[in-house]
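Incident log, structure service

09:12 report received: a user says their structure output differs between two submissions of the same chain.
09:20 pulled the input from the user's history:
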Amino acid sequence: MQQQRFDVPLAVKFGSPEQQKVLRSAQDASDFLLNNWPGKRSPKHRAALQACHAVIDAGKPAMTARRAFLAAAREVDIVVSDMTDA
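09:34 re-ran on a clean worker, output below:
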């Protein structure tokens, strides 16, 4: 699991009323993509899910999943912070 952790966590908004969730790993991101994703599932959503699974199942670098998730999250405007200044 350690290799699945993001070097820098991501904070995203979800739900109603709006809440925040901090994602710290590829598993967190995958769970969010599958269970809490707002709106339609675009090609960026699909790419993010595939990247998360590549980290979880094949040991790819966690940064790959983080970047793909961030691109998809920006597309649907749910990024609160990428926590680089935290």
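09:41 both user submissions now match this output. Likely a transient worker issue. Closing.
09:42 reviewer note: The helical segments are 26-35, 43-58, 62-75. The first helix runs from residue 26 to 35.
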